Amino acid sequence: MKFAIFCKSFRDDLHRFARLADSVVRHNRDRLPFYASVPRSDRLLFAERIGSRDVELVCDEDILGEQVKQSWTTQQLVKLCVGRTGFADAWFWLDSDAYFIRDFGLSDFVRDDGSVAFAASRKLHLLEERWTEVVRELDDPSTTRPLTLAELGGASASHAVAISRWQRWVDAVLRPSFEARLPRIASFFGRTGPSLYYLPGAIWTQDGVRSFEEAVLAPLRMTFSDLLQYAPWEANWIGEWTIASGMRGRHIVESPFLHIRSDEAIRRARREGLGESRLAARYLGLQLAARHQEYERLDELRSA
Question: Which of 242, 261, 244, 269 minimizes the C-alpha distance to 253?
Answer without folding.
Answer: 242
